Amino acid sequence: MKKHVLGLAALLPLLALAADGMDIMQKGGANPSAPPCMTCHGADGKGMAASGFPRLAGLPEAYIAKQLADFKAGRRKNPVMQPIAEALSDEEVAAVARAYAGMPKVNVKAEPIERPEPGTGAWLALRGAWERNIPECVLCHGPNGVGVGSVFPPLAGQSALYIENQLNAWRGTPAIPATRKTKAVPAVPPTRANDPNGLMAHIAQSLTPAEVKAVAEYFAGLGETEEPFDASQHHRLR
Ligand code: HEC
Ligand code: HEC
């Protein structure tokens, strides 16, 4: 008997540490400032397109953990997600990242566009604009934008609004000088500055606002198919 009690007592601190990712999604973190993730990211983890809440289901574990760390550190600014990330312990971040990574990945319908029209979102996505040093998005984000390894997140499965928000976050907005009729509008610095080697900042800042919209709509339009999941479309670097 005594042995059992001792055994339990030894286990208790471990139980307190072992955060449950599913629990955090459904009930929130131990700190009430971290509400259930599913209220915004959806019961199926697929996000809410109209509100710009991204899909988390099937995103790489290391990518999710990195984003939460970036929100905490202020390298990625967002008034909704920063306080939530700050309220999660490191153990909770690890657990919830693992749980979302374990949910189904986006299942795109691979319909190759043979010849994208120049100047369209598809052209940028598949060919880039090398004369402006903009590589094609699929070079890093994988064929059909399904993501590659743990560094390059999927774009397929995300909404146009969310993709556009992220590109604009890396862009910031330039100052508008005063005119006789209007006041000057100060520049807004980029709110997302967490990309390795400034890869995305360079790309986002090289695009025109119309291109941002077009490429966001292209990836959002890839959608998700009901057909059986084809694992071969997902590439792993490491
Ligand atoms: C009140 C709504 C809300 C709740 C609750 C919420 N999120 Fe978010 N989340 C957002 C929004 C909005 C964004 C996009 C922020 C931006 O545009 O940068 C986001 C973005 C993220 C991202 C970045 C995804 C990417 O593709 O880069 C991660 C990771 C994330 N949330 C994790 C969580 C976790 C884990 C929880 C639960 C503990 C949670 N969120 C709860 C609204 C929410
Ligand atoms: C040279 C490699 C590279 C190329 C080319 C590239 N990206 Fe990225 N992209 C990245 C990396 C790395 C990240 C993850 C940054 C981070 O850690 O937050 C990223 C993240 C993103 C995100 C944020 C996704 C999310 O879940 O929050 C969007 C949106 C995005 N890229 C759009 C594009 C578009 C559109 C293009 C083409 C015009 C493009 N990218 C081309 C490397 C690249």
TrEMBL record:
Residues covered by the Cytochrome c domain: 16-223
Keywords, comma-separated and alphabetical: Heme, Iron, Metal-binding, Signal
GO cellular component, as recorded: periplasmic space
Post-translational modification: Binds 2 heme c groups covalently per subunit.
InterPro entries, alphabetized: Cyt_c-like_dom, Cyt_c-like_dom_sf, Cytochrome_c4-like, Cytochrome_c_Oxidase_Subunit
UniProt GO molecular function: electron transfer activity; heme binding; iron ion binding
Span of the signal peptide: 1-18
Residues involved in heme c 1 binding: 37, 40-41, 81
Residue sites binding heme c 2 per the record: 137, 140-141, 200
Name of the protein described by the UniProt record: Cytochrome c553
Organism name: Extensimonas vulgaris
Taxonomic lineage of the native organism: Bacteria, Pseudomonadati, Pseudomonadota, Betaproteobacteria, Burkholderiales
